[in-house]
Design a protein that fits this description.
The protein has 322 residues and is of the alpha/beta class. It is built from 11 helices and 15 strands. An 11-stranded mixed β-sheet has the order 1-8-2-3-7-4-6-5-9-10-11, with helices on both faces. The chain has a 4-stranded parallel β-sheet with strand order 12-15-13-14, with helices on one face. Strand 10, helix 8 and strand 11 form a beta-alpha-beta unit. Helix 1 packs across helix 6. The structure holds threonylcarbamoyladenylate and magnesium ion.
Length: 322
């Protein structure tokens, strides 16, 4: 495994690896992706193996040009033009009907495919040079913290990936928002780096919740995920009381607990900004994971704007240790 600075030559090398069925970790504006040729089932299988990811969990195809949607989906592009115009490239993934060209392993046998155009120069250049959509989940071990730097990727996947393109710290810092489009209905599958309020303004209606009680393995609906290597709970007066005597790493949002003496303290934002907090979420959890602490206590964040994505990730991390 090599961490490479992206330039014309290294992107060319990375695209050759993709064309030849290998794995490349690359930066996007949300988190780092673990990419393979989305049209090559054997290459895509390596992603599942590298992550230890269950095969029922489908992958996102990353594109660099909206015209590629016609190749991988049967949807009438006019029906999603408003979303494409407003949010591509950007932290939005659309789940739409797949075309026959998309291998079943990418969609986990579903009749839909997830599509996203990342808003990142290196990612777009890589997809363009490779000449195929790149299938990529977040470049972490299944269930663990998502990576927002090249070193985070190396920490979890160093023997599993051919090269890592180093694009520095991801600007958005949480994964894309995923919506499924079914006829005239829009379902929110995962809150993420694009605020749901922004999407609702463009589609001019509310996003619906997907009923998944019949199938707990429904894609994107796992209740445990994004867990650091150290137990994590929500920060409140009770959890502080319960963890007395333990070395606490606090992940703060507001000023409420600023004066407490914790063993370690990280502030997600200094300006009360949900965007800044999201960009620091995984980054600071990765930092806390490396500290000599017994438990992480994370302050709940109001579920407004990107606060929804932050709380989704924190709740799933907390659930893992229940
Ligand atoms: O920001 C992101 O979305 C990052 C970067 C690398 O683009 N990728 C990412 O991928 O977060 P991953 O695999 O960690 O999460 C993709 C989610 C999964 O929860 C999966 O279940 C859901 O997308 N998904 C993929 N295809 C789907 C489909 N056809 N129907 C429903 N959900 C789908
Ligand atoms: Mg992931």
């Amino acid at each position: 495994m090599q961490i490479l600075q992206p330039d014309i030559h290294t992107i060319e090398l990375a695209s050759l690896i993709i064309k030849n069925g290998g794995l490349v970790a690359f930066p996007t504006e949300t988190v780092y992706g673990l990419g393979a040729n989305g049209f090559n089932p054997t290459a895509v299988a390596k992603i599942f193996e590298a992550k230890g990811r269950p095969k029922f969990n489908p992958l996102i195809l990353h594109i660099c040009d909206a015209a590629q949607i016609k190749q991988i989906s049967t949807i009438d592009i006019n029906s999603i033009q408003n979303l494409i115009t407003a949010f591509f490239p950007g932290p939005l993934t659309l789940v739409i009907p797949k075309s026959d060209i998309v291998p079943d392993i990418v969609t986990a046998g579903n009749s839909t495919v997830a599509v996203r155009m990342p808003n990142h120069k290196i990612a777009l250049e890589l997809i363009k040079t490779a000449g195929v959509p790149i299938a990529a989940p977040s470049a972490n071990k299944f269930g663990k913290l998502s990576p927002t730097t090249a070193n985070h990727v190396a920490k979890q996947l160093k023997d599993k990936v051919d090269i890592i393109l180093d694009g520095g710290k991801c600007s958005v810092g949480v994964e894309s928002t995923i919506i499924e489009i079914s006829g005239n209905d829009y379902y929110l599958l995962r809150p993420g780096g694009l605020a749901t309020e922004e999407i609702e303004k463009v589609i001019n209606k509310k996003l619906l919740k997907k009923e998944n009680s019949k199938n707990p393995n429904a894609p994107g609906q796992l209740l445990f995920h994004y867990a650091p290597g150290i137990p994590i709970k929500f920060l409140n007066d009770i959890s502080i009381e319960e963890t007395k005597g333990k070395k606490i790493g606090a992940l703060l949002f507001s000023e409420k607990y600023l004066d407490y003496s914790f063993a370690e303290k990280k502030c997600l934002t200094t300006t009360n900004s949900y965007i800044e907090a999201a960009s620091n979420l995984f980054y600071m959890l990765h930092e806390l994971e490396l500290k000599n602490i017994d438990i992480i206590l994370a302050e709940p964040v109001p579920e407004i704007g990107l606060g929804k994505a932050i709380m989704d990730r924190l709740k799933k991390a907390v659930n893992t240790f229940k």
